[in-house]
Specification:
422 residues; mainly alpha; Growth Hormone, Chain: A; two-stranded parallel sheet; 17 helices; 2 strands
């Protein structure tokens, strides 16, 4: 028997779990992906939820809050395409552990902040870690969860983002109003370290080949349109967790009532992402059409919020959260199924659009509130959401039109390209 050569031994070692680690199963992989998404998405939403309390200690205005949230998403947008490539070269496990460590460090910086510029620097650092999260977690779910259950898995993972806003809203009355806002940041930082430790003890994925990125060539046009749609929809959506509590307080709600509205809205967004992910596993198509519909209903919610009447504002906030921020799950499911051979690279590009919207949303909203009124700001968000829905329909048309974008071949030699129903 011939002994394997050095290259064969290296390849065999890369396929084996590292010493002391066990390969993560579908459930544990999904749980770690969800926990990582929560801790990575929490920093800007936590700062937004604590803005009233932070302003009591620091000179912290609505414009400065907008700059902090925008900085987080700007760095995420700039680094997200590179993050998709890093997943291929570093492996999902290394990316997830790194993202958790960065999130913990940024949250500790928030807890120690003595000036609003420290909060700004913390959001820059947090955005760098967040750029790794969505490509890594989507790739992890795509590699460990069966295709028949991937829709609900991606929906659950996307539900982690509104879960972070729910966590932020719950921490305000539970911790910020009793122990102080700094302890809120410390508690989430400890959680991020625990998630990173759990991820470090599991085998989540080793470095792979970067050749898969080349499969996107020739199929970028609808992906870029989807990224633009995500940017517009996220422009409106990211204004919700960042400014809802401040807006509700301005309209006339108490801090506790404003936090309660955000809790209800976050639960609605979670239910939408999970519910439509579950439905995506049981239907053959219409994911992009449904995504556009959710954006349109979300626009109606923003319009109700623009009325600034207390009942209309509360109902509109829940509708805007549930639909105007609940489309992300189906959006990511559609991208992963349209580009099954390049999930991390494709979602890295699509997420860059969403993160770009995270930059524009707080800045545009902050300027509108500063120069106008809360009602005018939410009315503008409604119009932006309508434009996003039309762009999603345009991307769908690019796929389904005769002679449209070529799809990857089905499994098997000589098999024809697969064109999913959209």
């Amino acid at each position: 028997m011939i002994a394997p050569g050095p290259r064969a031994r290296v390849r065999r070692a890369q396929r084996q779990p590292a010493a002391g680690r066990s390969p993560a199963g579908p459930r544990s992989a999904l749980g770690l992906a969800m926990a990582t998404t929560v801790v990575a998405a929490t920093p800007p939403f936590l700062v937004g939820a604590l803005a009233v309390q932070i302003a009591d200690d620091l000179a912290f205005s609505a414009t400065q809050l907008a700059l902090c949230v925008a900085a987080y998403f700007a760095v995420s947008a700039l680094l997200s395409p590179a993050g998709g490539r890093r997943v291929l070269t570093w492996g999902t496990g290394t990316c997830i552990v790194s993202a958790c460590a960065v999130a913990a460090g940024s949250l500790l910086a928030v807890a120690l902040a003595w000036h609003w510029t420290v909060l700004l620097a913390a959001m820059v650092v947090a955005g760098a870690g967040n750029a790794l999260v969505q490509p890594a977690c989507n790739a992890l779910v795509g590699s460990r969860v069966a295709v028949a259950r991937r829709g609900i898995a991606l929906g659950l993972n996307q539900a982690s983002v509104p879960t972070s806003t729910l966590l932020s809203a719950v921490l305000v009355p539970a911790v910020a109003l009793t122990a102080g806002w700094r302890w809120c940041a410390v508690s989430v930082a400890v959680g991020a370290l625990l998630v990173g430790r759990a991820a470090g003890r599991a085998e989540l994925g080793r470095p792979g080949s970067r050749a898969v990125s080349a499969s996107l060539l020739g199929r970028r046009a609808p992906l870029l349109v989807l990224a633009a749609a995500g940017a517009l929809a996220a422009t409106a959506a990211t204004s919700l967790p960042a400014f809802l509590i401040v807006s509700a307080y301005t309209v006339g709600f108490s801090p506790v009532a404003a936090s309660s509205i955000q809790v209800c809205g976050s639960l609605a967004a979670i239910a939408t992402r999970v519910g439509f992910g579950w439905a995506a596993d049981r239907r053959s198509g219409h994911r992009l059409a449904t995504t556009a519909s959710l954006m349109g209903v979300g626009a109606l919610g923003y319009a109700l919020m623009s009325l600034t009447a207390l009942p209309a504002f509360a109902v509109g906030a829940v509708v805007a959260f549930g639909c105007g921020w609940g489309w992300n799950g189906l959006y990511n499911i559609a991208v992963s199924r349209l580009y099954p051979d390049a999930i991390s690279s494709a979602t890295g590009i699509s997420q860059s659009g969403i993160y770009a919207g995270g930059v524009l949303g707080p800045l545009v909203f902050g300027v509108l509130v500063q120069d106008g009124s809360v009602g005018a700001a939410w009315a503008t968000m409604s119009g932006i959401a309508v434009c996003a829905a039309f762009l999603v329909l345009l991307a769908r048309w690019l796929f389904v039109r005769p002679g449209g974008v070529p799809m990857p071949a089905a499994a098997g030699a000589g098999a024809p390209p697969v064109r999913p129903v959209l």
